[in-house]
Design a protein that fits this description.
Blueprint: H1 6-14, H2 27-35, E1 39-40, E2 50-55, E3 61-70, E4 73-83, H3 87-101, E5 105-110, H4 126-132, E6 137-139, H5 145-155, E7 159-162, H6 167-175, E8 178-181, E9 186-191, H7 197-206
Parallel strand pairs: 1-7, 2-5, 4-7, 5-6
Antiparallel strand pairs: 2-3, 3-4, 8-9
Helix pairs in contact: 5-7, 6-7
Length: 207
């Protein structure tokens, strides 16, 4: 009644420390996924192509999620992250991963700004550079962040996540959060940009 957030209520009165960061967007959805047994070993289905979903960093981290549509389910089976590398590095990683794990790729998805960002050398967009390297990106819809967050929340009941290869994604989704203004007793309407943002953004593009 005095305005304590649900997150702190769970910690203070129910000794529940499994909800991630204060104001986390996806923590309870991950908790439900774990209860349902959807955070587990998720095997690669060789009968289904692997789609990739990218959050492309400029001066910070790039994250790639690898997922399969299996029936009505979304299986996130693998991921990669790095920073300070050009697109050729990530293309080589995908090629080697395909050899190592016998992946057959389907569609590669990137955010809308891949067509407006330019590389440091020349005026080519990253979309064109990727195409030259053999990656033909589909551009995801340019939706407001809060709409994408709601779409991902609605998609969570169909999502399975491999707990070994995607452990970083799980922690990022647990901790992707909005800040709480104690003076006004309200949450911000925007997510905090921190280490969890890039993996969470890639998951949002997937949804």
């Amino acid at each position: 009644a005095d305005g304590m957030s649900e997150h702190l209520i769970q910690q203070e009165y129910y000794c529940n420390f499994d909800l991630g960061a204060e104001g986390a967007y996806y923590a309870k959805y991950l908790a439900q996924a774990e209860l349902d047994g959807r955070i587990t070993h998720v095997p690669y289905d060789p009968q289904t192509t692997v789609n990739t979903y990218w959050d492309l960093g400029v001066s910070d981290e790039t994250v790639i999620l690898l997922a399969q549509n299996v029936g009505n389910e979304l299986h996130i089976i693998d991921m990669y992250r790095n920073q300070g590398e050009g697109l050729h590095h990530y293309v080589r990683w995908l090629q080697q991963r395909a050899v190592d794990r016998v992946y057959v790729y389907g569609t590669h998805f990137a955010p809308h700004d891949i067509k407006v960002r330019e590389l440091a050398h020349g005026a080519q967009t990253r979309w064109q550079t990727a195409k030259d390297l053999g990656i033909h990106f589909e551009v995801v819809p340019n939706l407001p962040i809060h709409e994408g967050i709601e779409i991902l929340r609605g998609t969570f009941p169909r999502i399975w996540i491999d707990q070994t290869h995607c452990s970083y994604l799980i922690k990022a989704l647990e901790n992707y959060h909005k800040s709480f203004n104690e003076n006004l007793n309200v949450y911000s309407d925007k997510p905090v940009h921190d280490w969890s943002s890039h993996a969470a953004d890639a998951a949002r593009y997937l949804a």
